[in-house]
Design brief:
Layout: H1 71-82, H2 88-102, H3 106-111, H4 114-133, H5 135-140, H6 152-163, H7 170-185, H8 199-222, H9 233-258, H10 267-293
Helix pairs in contact: 1-2, 2-10, 4-7, 4-8, 4-10, 6-7, 7-8, 8-9, 9-10
Length: about 300
């Protein structure tokens, strides 16, 4: 809800997994360029006729989702929001229906977090590198050595273009906004010294980031412009705080369930860890939502 990329909500006919989050399966076809006059080029003397190159495979078009797959989640979240946060069943139904129906399950929900997964992995890699080799060396590797010795908020702000560069898609905007909101949360989480980060603090930073990213993804997909928030600013703040707390509990449980020392992960292992946490978090959130709704 804190993202600046709010829009009218994803349309029901949009693919469950946007095409820009999938690997490009296309390949370039070879062959000479035909004459501009449209005639067929003659084969070289004594050579067999050239076999025309196979056409490049067409990219796979993601299957469109059901046209009404966002309706249940939007209706439930609107009820929760308009109640000022008192309708916890509405919150539970909104989150559960978002994961199960709107996103198409926890695996697909995690796949929709393409840029946020990449940014989360980049953040963990940097923090692990800084804890092992020192902040100055980690920054030097990114040509950001001038940030060494600066307050942690300034270091993180300088890392933004490396962790989550600006882009034109909603997905990229969510990743960047989540990173900016994470910076604002550092002091409140007691994380003030980047030169002395513990494994628990690195885990907390990632937990904060993933929470903000999932919250923004959910709100953008449900459609913040079609959800009626309370006119009372205090009630609106309660709605936002309850949603964030709900999501953070799911993310925290997912990280703890992974059972790994995040600081000990190799750079190659970080991506798999982050993907697992996102998928597990969505699965846990669906279960939590069902329990909250009494279903």
């Amino acid at each position: 809800m804190g993202t600046s990329n709010a829009y009218g909500g994803a349309g029901g006919g949009t693919p469950l997994i946007p095409s820009w989050l999938q690997d490009d399966g296309g390949g370039a076809g070879g062959g000479a360029t035909p004459p501009s006059d449209g005639s067929t080029p003659a084969p070289a003397t004594g050579a067999p006729p050239a076999v025309p190159p196979a056409p490049a495979p067409r990219p796979v078009i993601p299957a469109a989702g059901a046209s009404d797959r966002f309706t249940g989640a939007r209706t439930s979240f609107s009820r929760f929001a308009s109640s000022g946060g008192s309708d916890r069943r509405g919150l539970g139904r909104a989150v559960s229906r978002y994961v199960s129906t709107s996103a198409g399950g926890s695996r697909r929900a995690a796949q929709r977090m393409g840029s946020s997964r990449g940014a989360g992995a980049g953040l963990v890699r940097f923090l692990n590198d800084a804890s092992v080799n020192g902040v100055r060396e980690a920054l030097r590797a990114l040509n950001l050595e001038s940030l060494a010795g600066r307050p942690i908020e300034e270091v993180f702000a300088g890392l933004a273009d490396y962790i989550c560069p600006e882009g034109g898609s909603i997905d990229e905007g969510i990743a960047r906004d989540a990173f900016i909101e994470t910076i604002a949360d550092l002091a409140g989480a007691g994380i003030t010294d980047i030169d002395a980060l513990t494994s628990a603090q690195i885990q907390t930073v990632f937990e904060l980031y993933a929470t903000h990213a999932i919250e923004a993804r959910l709100c953008n997909d449900i459609g913040t412009k079609v959800v009626t928030l309370p006119a009372d600013p205090r009630a609106a703040a309660r709605v936002e705080a309850q949603l964030r707390d709900f999501i953070q509990r799911g993310v925290s449980d997912a990280i703890n369930a992974a059972g790994v020392n995040i600081q000990a992960l190799s750079p190659d292992a970080v991506t798999g860890f982050v993907t697992t946490v996102y998928q597990s978090a969505f699965e846990i959130l669906q279960t939590m939502g069902d329990a909250e709704a009494g279903e």
